[in-house]
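dumping this here before i forget
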Amino acid sequence: MMLAAEYGRRIASGEIAPGTVLPTEKEIQLHHGVSRTVVREAMRHLSAKGLVTVGPKVGTRVSEPIQWNMLDADVMGWHLFAGISRPFVEALYEMRLINEPAAAHAAAERISQEQIVRLEAALDGMAENPRGSSEQIAADLAFHRIILEATANPILVSLGTMIERSLSISFSLSWRQITQRDSVQQHRRVLEAIRDRDGEAAALYMRRLIESAFDDVTRQLYPEGEGGGKADAGAAGAMCSRHDGGHQGAAEGLR
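structure:
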């Protein structure tokens, strides 16, 4: 699928703009030195992911981004390969703010003792491994994945698996900014609230953790002079407030 990956990366990066009609099968064959079968299979692959539409008279046209399957592992990877764009980062964290605080709330009600033990082990992994190391990032991923698993909602569990690659990169960036002690403490508050079966507190602390991570990542990617930093973290919180209004009372009580 090398041909599909090449065109996927070029489409995801914006090099090939939405609405563009791709070269004909014959032109692609000649340019890349591949068979007609390879070209057709690549276009079917891109079409299945929503990146292109294929018609007998209009040819192969790049679809609008709204039609792309952004949770597809290949599409996600092509976006990351093309460079971590600001809109992509903002969309990722908005999605997390919409889903993960609610997942923490549900986990507090449904988590098993075995999952609590694994959650504690993941937190230990964040505390004990060097900051920003692959082992620490793996522990961070495990922490969030276990919480999604503890919701007993198979769709939320699948969501975590699908976005794991992008989360791995965002965790790597955020760990470069925040002190290890502070990040571990933020995660510990989430764990303790879940362990205490306090759904409201779990949701609040998860939301605060994600907003803090968004701030860390934007400061890493976009220095203050380039429109990044804390103003963006505030924007992330504001854009999600409509989705998380039910936790405002808890927020007041815990401040």
